[in-house]
Amino acid sequence: MKPSTGTKVLWAELLPHEFKQRQEACPVVYLPLGLCEPHGQVSAFGLDTIKAEWLCEEAARREGGIVAPSMGYHIHEAGYHARWLEEEVGEENPHMTGIPPAVMLHLFLYQLRAFANAGFSTIVVVSGHSGGNQLDLRLAAEQFMKRVPVQVWVRSDPELVEGLYEGDHAGS
Ligand SMILES: [Zn+2]
């Protein structure tokens, strides 16, 4: 997390009265998701997180709302990702911050709970890491919404520009 310039939108930077003011004006919280993983020789390991943070911070600056602390650990070494790792990265150390799906989804549900408890009515989740795990997150969000009266909206960044741009993700 780097300090913001101009309007403060990061939950971690807001004072209590600033938080309440922003939340009252717009009860939306954004959760940027990403991880560190190999993105070739010209991209930083944290590309996925950096993209998600930028989208969330810009949205909050333009439309209101508060950006929650980023989640820089994500699903990778399982399912289709595992095959991608084997084919694209091979035996080399991938230097990544992958966590198991069960841990990720459990933590995700508790993040949603924290946002509902903090008084937000809409939760916008933007994942800079994609390829299918956004579907798992949506399933978890659907279950959460059956029990808690909040709106949870989950998208990966390529889904935001579907039909306009193919995306930058390695191998996809
Ligand atoms: Zn990724």
Task: Write structural notes for this entry.
The chain is α/β, with parallel strands linked by helices and 172 residues long. It has a single domain, classed as Creatininase (Rossmann fold), CATH 3.40.50.10310. It is built from 6 helices and 6 strands, in the order H-E-H-E-E-H-E-H-E-H-E-H. The strands form 2 sheets. The chain has a 4-stranded parallel β-sheet, with helices on both faces. Helix 3 links the parallel strand 3 (74-75) and strand 4. Helix 4 (101-117) crosses helix 5 (133-147). Bound molecules: zinc ion. Zinc ion (ZN) is lined by residues 37, 48, 129, 169. The site of zinc ion has 4 residues, from loops.
In CATH terms, the superfamily is Creatininase
Physical arrangement of strands within the biggest beta sheet: 2-1-5-6
Poorly predicted runs: none
Please tally the β strands and state the result: 6
Q: Which percent range describes the beta-strand content?
A: 5-15%
Ligands bound, unique: zinc ion
Q: Mean of residue pLDDT?
A: 92
In the CATH hierarchy, what is the architecture at level 2? 3-Layer(aba) Sandwich
Number of domains: 1
Number of helical segments with 4 or more residues: 6
Helix content: 40-55%
The description of the largest β-sheet is: 4 strands, parallel
The global form is globular
Key features?
two-stranded parallel sheet; Rossmann fold; 172 residues; alpha/beta; binds zinc ion; globular; four-stranded parallel sheet
